[in-house]
Amino acid sequence: MLLEKKNAVIYGAGGAVGGAVARAFAREGARVFLTGRTQAPLDIVAHDIAQSGGVAETAQVDAFDQQAVERHLADVIQRAGSIDVSFNAISIPYQQGEFLTEMTLEQFTPPITEVMRTQFITTTAAARHMIQQRAGVILAITATPARQPIPQSGNFGVSCAAIENLCLQLAAELGPHGIRVICMRSAGSPEVLQEVFAALGAELGISGEAFEARMADQTLLKRMPRLAEVGNAAALMASDYASAMTGTVANVTCGGTLD
What we know:
Rossmann fold; 8 helices
C-alpha cells in the first residue's frame, strides 16, 4: 500500500473532495485524522473507511482558528507520533457568475482572504512539526481557472492562483528540511458541481447539462475528472512514489489545462 504507516490530517474531510481523498488515503494504508466544523459529515466518511477496513479518527476543528489547529496537531503528534501528510480541502463560498467589473469590493475580497487564512494556518502549522521530523508532505487543491482564466469565474480563479503560489513559496522554503509541497489542480468533478454548472450556464442562457458538456469538450479527454480520480492522485502525490516531486502542480484536469 502506498501510504502504509503514514499519518494524514485532512481539513474539510466531510466535504466531497476531502472525503474522496480521505477514503483514498485510508485505502492505501494511512491512518487518517478527519477534521471539520461539523461532526456528522465526518462520521459518515469515518464509517465508510472503517467498513472498508481502514483507520480513521474524527475531530471538530475550525481550520480558520490557528490555536484550534495547533491544539489538534499537538494531540495527533502525542497519539500517533508524527504528521506525515497534511491536506486542506476546506470549502469556500466563492462569488461566481459575474464579471469582475460588476462585483463590489465586499463581494470580491472576503473569499480570497478566508482561503488564504485557512491555507496559511494549516500549512505552516503542519510544516513546523514536519521540520522537526525532517519529512512530510503538504498538499493543496485548486482548479482550472488558476492557470486558464475563465470569464465570470469571479474571485475563484484569483484564489486558486494564490493557493498555487503559496505552495510554490512553501516548497522553496521547506525543501531543505525534507518536506515536499504539491498542489493538485482539478477541472472540477461533475458529482459535486451541478449547482455551479446550472448557475454559470444560466448566465450564458444554456442549461447546466449543456454547460458541463461545454467544459468537458474543452479537455483533451473530453470529460471531467471524477472524485475518485482526484483521491487517487492525492494518494500518489503523498506517497514515496512521488518522492522527487515538490514545488509543482499535479495536473488532474483531464487535459483541461496543459503544462
